[in-house]
Design brief:
Order of helices and strands: HHHHHH
Shape: elongated
Structural class: mainly alpha
Strand content: under 5%
Radius of gyration: 19 Å
Number of helices: 6
C-alpha cells in the first residue's frame, strides 16, 4: 500500500467519523458562515453595501418584520448559530430591529 493510498484511506475514515458524529455538517456550516462574514467585513471596509430592495421593501412592513423575526427566533431556538450569523447581516435584521425599536 502506497503512502497516497494510506492518506486517502485515513481521509475517508476521518470524513466518515465526522459525518457519523454530526460534526462534519457543523464544521461546514461554520466555515460557510466564516467565509460570508469575512466577505461582509471586507465589503464594510471598502464601503460596499449590498441592497436587496425586494427584501428591504418586505421588511419595511409589519408583516415582513414579523416573518423575519420568526425566522430569526427559529434559528436561535434550534441553535443554528452559523446560519443565524449569516442571516442577520445578509437580511439586515440587526439594522432593521434597531430602526423599529
Amino acid at each position: 500500500m502506497s503512502a497516497g493510498d494510506e492518506d486517502t484511506e485515513l481521509r475517508d475514515l476521518v470524513t466518515q467519523t465526522l459525518e457519523n458524529n454530526g460534526l462534519l455538517g457543523k464544521i461546514q456550516a461554520q466555515l460557510r458562515a466564516g467565509v460570508f462574514l469575512a466577505l461582509e467585513e471586507t465589503d464594510k471596509k471598502n464601503r460596499k453595501v449590498h441592497h436587496n430592495k425586494r427584501l428591504q421593501q418586505f421588511l419595511s412592513t409589519k408583516e415582513g418584520l414579523l416573518a423575519a423575526g420568526i425566522v430569526q427566533e427559529f434559528l436561535e431556538f434550534f441553535q443554528l448559530d452559523y446560519t443565524g450569523a449569516v442571516f442577520e447581516p445578509e437580511s439586515g435584521m440587526v439594522r432593521m430591529l434597531v430602526k423599529y425599536e
